[in-house]
Amino acid sequence: MSTHEERVKWFLNDRFGMFIHWGLYAIPARGEWVRSREKMTIEDYEPFFEEFDPIYYDPKKWARAAKEAGMKYAVMTSKHHDGFCLFDSKLTDYKATNTPAGRDLIKEYVDAFRSEGLKVGFYYSIIDWHHPDYPAYGDRQHPMRDNEDIKDAEKDKDFSRYLEYMHGQVKELVTNYGQIDIMWFDFSYDDMEGEKWEATKLVEMVRSIQPNILIDNRLTLHDKFDLSIPYSGDFASPEQIIPPEGVRDINGNPVPWEACITMNNNWGYASADKDFKSAKQCIRGLVECVSKGGNMLLNVGPDAKGQIPEESLAILADIGKWMKQNGDSIYGCTIADIEKPEWGRFTQRDNKLYAHILDRGIGAIAVDYPRDKIKRARLLSDKSEINIQTPWTSQHYGEATFINFASATLPDDIDTVVEFELMD
Ligand code: GLC
Predict the structure, then answer these.
(1) Is the pLDDT of residue 46 over 90?
(2) DSSP string covering 66-85, please?
């Protein structure tokens, strides 16, 4: 088995991935929690199973959109909390093969993303609102949590049967699809955490079949990142936030992390939610993550026909344009040796220091790094020379090096990146 350090190497380099939330909930189109939020019974939800027929599902297109955006890996829902499986599990009938789709949609995803050279991950919900042995009445979020009619039936449930099912499905996922790069479990809550999931056994099984796989930290509660616990996971998964100072384990050491972020306000397709972030926000978010030692997993929620929303495709395309010119300031980069400047952020890879200038300010821009330790400065987008200046008054202001742009506005309003090559 590989060590944690070896396993996370590619992850720390690649920095940017696509999250895909897709399932039956694309039909009601009110997000992936619709069954819980609206307290729908299995029967209420059944029509979506009967009609699920994504005629335009073409994961090659999705993979190309991800690749063009500069993403290097993807994580897709194999099963969400509603229990519906996009993969052909032998352990349930509640799966895509039994819908009009009639086939294993996960297999097609894996093949398509792999052939575009992207790494492949599975999101898998350890919560299951469909399985008869999963706690329902009194559970924190089960759709039937306050349905008095099912209260008495609760005592006949056998959680160990659910665990057997869940472990069995995870085994299928890590056995039947070749190399899997990430297993993204979701999620623990209250006392439903750690060994309640038989997490040590689960992780050992996964790692014995996929020695290099990365596992997220949601088999346990988020505030306990401790690498000595087998199910602690390889990386932290802050959701909808970028931790102000990155993420550290219980001993204070930095750990790999990945902020998962939606483009609008939903993970699963939500037809009325048009509140999309701009490409500029997404790019700046990615830069912020990398400047704090993290990754970004940016979500898309394809619709019932299998189409990624137009708005999301447009954002991805715009991100791609920026990444094509500026990807060197993202891949393999991390927290820089110098502090965050007033006008933006720094990222760094070895002797390359990247200044992400977000605010033009006025006059020359001060970089808090000694002039004689900088070999050269280039605009990353076209490698043109950036004028390093020593204004006659600058000697009064410490060690700062000044750079200037000929224009009053920045060349790239999203994020103008200057690459400094540092002396060895
Ligand atoms: C959650 C939600 C969920 C989403 C996920 C992404 O905890 O339950 O619907 O899949 O986080 O991080």
Answers:
(1) yes
(2) HHHTT--EEEEEEE-TT--B
Which residue type does 218 have?
R
Distance of alpha carbon 271 from alpha carbon 276, whole angstroms: 12
Q: Which of 30, 267, 269 to mutate to test the pocket of ligand 1 (most atoms within 8 A of CB)?
A: 267
Question: Are 232 and 224 in contact, with CB atoms under 8 Å apart?
Answer: yes
Q: Which residues line ligand 1 (CB under 6 A)?
A: 21, 32-33, 186-187, 239, 260, 267
Q: From the centroid of its chain, how far is CA 16? A: 8
The predicted-structure confidence for 338-382, as pLDDT tens digits, reads as follows 999 999 999 999 999 999 999 999 999 999 999 999 999 999 999
- pLDDT in the model for residue 1: 65
Give the residue-averaged pLDDT of 293-298: 98
Distances (CA, A) of 41 to 24, 96, 237: 14, 19, 30
Give me the CATH code for the 344-422 domain, please.
2.60.40.1180
Q: Give domain limits for the chain.
A: 4-329, 344-422
227 falls in which pLDDT band (50, 70, 90)?
confident
Average pLDDT over residues 200-207: 98
CA of 186 to the centre of ligand 1 (A): 7
pLDDT at position 392 over 90:
no
Q: Which CATH architecture has domain 4-329?
A: Alpha-Beta Barrel (3.20)
- Closest ligand 1 atom to the C-alpha of 31? 9
Dihedral angle of Cα 317, 319, 322, 328, to the nearest 10 degrees: -120
Closest ligand 1 atom, CA of 299?
A: 6
Report the atom number in ligand 1 closest to the C-alpha of 19. Answer: 6
Residue labelled with tokens 């949609």 = 105
- In a mutational test of the pocket of ligand 1, which residue from 80, 81, 187 has the highest number of ligand atoms less than 8 Å from its CB? 187
Is residue 103 left, alpha or beta, with left meaning phi > 0 and alpha meaning psi from -120 to 50?
beta
Does position 398 have pLDDT exceeding 90, yes or no? no
Residue 132: Cβ within 10 Å count: 14
How far apart CA 268 and CA 113 sit, in angstroms, is 20
What's the order of all strands across the beta sheet hosting 365-367?
365-367, 401-404, 387-389
| pTM passes above 0.90 | yes
Give the DSSP letter of residue 258.
Answer: E
Element (H, E) at 346: strand 344-349
